[in-house]
Amino acid sequence: MRKIILLGYMGCGKSTIASSLSKNIKIPFVDLDKKIEEKTNLSINAIFEKHGEIYFRKLEHEVFLELLHSPDELIIGLGGGTPCYANNHELLKGEGVVSIYLKASIETLFQRLAVNKSKRPLLADKSEGEMKEFIAIHLFERSFYYNQAQYNVVVDDKTIHQTVLDIMDLLA
Ligand code: S3P
């Protein structure tokens, strides 16, 4: 059954947009990070602290594959780094997959992440000044992977509702 995959940098709104899309089109939403947290009984922060990032990336790949192979139609919200490891980007073009990159500018991401970085191990220890430069470089490095998605939807200056309508247009 079809999988609708939402991807994009931390703070682009994947989970919020996916939840709203799910209500509108009546397809269940699974958040990959939440699924990993449930399986391990650990928060993403704790996984990074206890086991390190490489362990997390392996787990992320396995759980992503599991969701892709599930018999159900699903909306899957990826973590910000998911497409950039373990050849996950190749899975964005698989059969029965619709992948959508939620594209946000550095400024939008910075504004959103500055107030909400503690749950994100890659940002938690950064000052505001460091964060802006980090986001700019990181987004540039990751763009190749994000651009493997079948569709792009720009989220800057749009309400959740407008973004969901844009996605529904693509799916129609
Ligand atoms: C990460 C993004 C996070 C989470 C982990 C690593 C990344 O997900 O998977 O902290 O590498 O960008 P969100 O994009 O949902 O914050």
UniProtKB/TrEMBL annotation:
<feature type="binding site">
    <location>
        <position position="120"/>
    </location>
    <ligand>
        <name>ATP</name>
    </ligand>
</feature>
<feature type="binding site">
    <location>
        <position position="142"/>
    </location>
    <ligand>
        <name>substrate</name>
    </ligand>
</feature>
<comment type="similarity">
    <text>Belongs to the shikimate kinase family.</text>
</comment>
<dbReference type="InterPro" id="IPR031322">
    <property type="entry name" value="Shikimate/glucono_kinase"/>
</dbReference>
<feature type="binding site">
    <location>
        <position position="33"/>
    </location>
    <ligand>
        <name>substrate</name>
    </ligand>
</feature>
<keyword id="KW-0963">Cytoplasm</keyword>
<dbReference type="GO" id="GO:0005829">
    <property type="term" value="C:cytosol"/>
</dbReference>
<keyword id="KW-0547">Nucleotide-binding</keyword>
<dbReference type="GO" id="GO:0008652">
    <property type="term" value="P:amino acid biosynthetic process"/>
</dbReference>
<keyword id="KW-0418">Kinase</keyword>
<dbReference type="Pfam" id="PF01202">
    <property type="entry name" value="SKI"/>
</dbReference>
<feature type="binding site">
    <location>
        <position position="57"/>
    </location>
    <ligand>
        <name>substrate</name>
    </ligand>
</feature>
<dbReference type="InterPro" id="IPR027417">
    <property type="entry name" value="P-loop_NTPase"/>
</dbReference>
<comment type="pathway">
    <text>Metabolic intermediate biosynthesis; chorismate biosynthesis; chorismate from D-erythrose 4-phosphate and phosphoenolpyruvate: step 5/7.</text>
</comment>
<keyword id="KW-0067">ATP-binding</keyword>
<dbReference type="GO" id="GO:0005524">
    <property type="term" value="F:ATP binding"/>
</dbReference>
<dbReference type="InterPro" id="IPR000623">
    <property type="entry name" value="Shikimate_kinase/TSH1"/>
</dbReference>
<keyword id="KW-0460">Magnesium</keyword>
<protein>
    <recommendedName>
        <fullName>Shikimate kinase</fullName>
        <ecNumber>2.7.1.71</ecNumber>
    </recommendedName>
</protein>
<keyword id="KW-0057">Aromatic amino acid biosynthesis</keyword>
<comment type="subunit">
    <text>Monomer.</text>
</comment>
<dbReference type="GO" id="GO:0004765">
    <property type="term" value="F:shikimate kinase activity"/>
</dbReference>
<feature type="binding site">
    <location>
        <position position="15"/>
    </location>
    <ligand>
        <name>Mg(2+)</name>
    </ligand>
</feature>
<feature type="binding site">
    <location>
        <begin position="11"/>
        <end position="16"/>
    </location>
    <ligand>
        <name>ATP</name>
    </ligand>
</feature>
<keyword id="KW-0808">Transferase</keyword>
<feature type="binding site">
    <location>
        <position position="80"/>
    </location>
    <ligand>
        <name>substrate</name>
    </ligand>
</feature>
<dbReference type="GO" id="GO:0000287">
    <property type="term" value="F:magnesium ion binding"/>
</dbReference>
<keyword id="KW-0479">Metal-binding</keyword>
<dbReference type="GO" id="GO:0009073">
    <property type="term" value="P:aromatic amino acid family biosynthetic process"/>
</dbReference>
<comment type="function">
    <text>Catalyzes the specific phosphorylation of the 3-hydroxyl group of shikimic acid using ATP as a cosubstrate.</text>
</comment>
<keyword id="KW-0028">Amino-acid biosynthesis</keyword>
<dbReference type="GO" id="GO:0009423">
    <property type="term" value="P:chorismate biosynthetic process"/>
</dbReference>
